[in-house]
Structures are given as C-alpha cells and as structure tokens.
Design goal:
mainly alpha; 10 helices; about 0% strand
Length: about 200
C-alpha cells in the first residue's frame, strides 16, 4: 500500500498543485481508503515530503554507481562526461521539472518542504561529489583547493539547461543535452584539470 500510493500522489500533486490536492482525491486515484494514507504518511504534508524524497532517491540512484566508480577512473574526461550526461538526463525528466515548479510555487508557504528538497538533493549531492573530487585530487587527476566549491560549480555548470527548462516548456532534445553536459565538463577541466598550468 505504501508504495502504491506514491505514483498516484505524485501525479495528483503535479496536476493540481499542493492546495488543490485533497487526501480524498489521492485516495480515489490510488484506490485506497483515506485512513490508509493517514496511517502510512500522517497527513498531506507528510505525503508530499515522502513523494519528494522518493523522487530524489530515484534520480540519485541512476548516478550513484558512476560516482562510486569515479575515484578509480582510468579516463577522467570520459567518465565525467558520462556522469554529466546521466545527471542532466535525470533532472530533466518532465515530471521532475514539474515537481520543481510546484515546489518553488509553494516555497514561501512551506519553506521546510523546499529546504528538504534542497538538502536531500543538491546539498547532499554536492557533499558526495566533493568527496569524489578530493579522491581524484589525491591521485593528482584534479587540482582543487576547495572540493565542495568545485562540486557545486560542476553541478550547476551541468544543470545550465535546467534553468531554461523551468521557464520554457518544450520537448527535451537529447543531443542538445549531451552537448551541454560535454561543454560543462570541458569548462570544469579547464579550471580544475591536472593539465592546466599550476597556480603561482
């Protein structure tokens, strides 16, 4: 029952927004009773939080194996490109873009929901990536003074297309996303790669 509620809840939140989504509506779409939802999630706020957490975990799972393997890479540029392409493809999924829009619309009224999304998404991702970059720097594959700053810069360079997608609705062009991801890696390696001139 717990898992069966997620997809109907997500679809209903995305279609109607937080305010116009009722527990009765979710229960009807999910084919469960309202008390069942309360039993599993407590209230609508709890259900919305759980839905976001599930989305974040699903997206993060796609790149986790790549991140774990990156410290042992034999071809950093190639593997960074693969990571960047996968990460951008994950966040550019239409339902995740719609979820971001809904969350931003509700951020002032429900700041904890927005904070949870950021903490479990971008912030946690930056910390994980920083640890990977530190390991690569120890192998002298990167030149990094502050791994966390480098991780944030890499992430937002890769996600430049996401900013446009938040405002402009059009089909995702995979070729364009790959090009954007590759450009982000080129810029990152120009700034932090082992082949760039040493600082004096």
């Amino acid at each position: 029952k717990h898992n069966a509620i997620f997809k109907p809840a997500r679809a209903t939140f995305l279609a109607n927004g937080y305010d116009d989504t009722s527990m009765d509506k979710i229960a009807a779409v999910a084919g469960v009773s309202k008390p069942t939802i309360y039993k599993h999630f407590g209230d609508k706020d709890g259900l919305f939080r759980a839905t976001m957490a599930a989305e974040i975990a699903e997206a993060a799972g796609h790149t986790l194996a790549m991140l774990e393997a990156l410290p042992a890479t034999r071809n950093l540029e190639r593997d960074l490109r693969r990571l960047a392409r996968q990460h951008l493809a994950d966040v550019m999924q239409p339902h995740l873009i719609r979820m971001r829009r809904r969350l931003i619309a509700e951020a002032e009224r429900f700041p904890q929901l927005a904070a949870t999304w950021y903490r479990n998404g971008a912030e946690k991702g930056h910390e994980t990536l920083a640890a990977v970059f530190s390991a690569l720097a120890a192998r002298e594959l990167l030149q990094i003074d502050d791994a966390l700053v480098a991780a944030e810069q890499f992430n937002w360079l890769v996600l430049i297309p996401l900013n446009r997608a938040m405002f402009i609705t059009r089909p995702v062009n995979t070729r364009e996303l790959h090009q954007a991801a590759d450009r982000a890696v080129d810029i990152f390696l120009a700034a932090y790669g082992s082949q760039r001139p040493q600082r004096r």
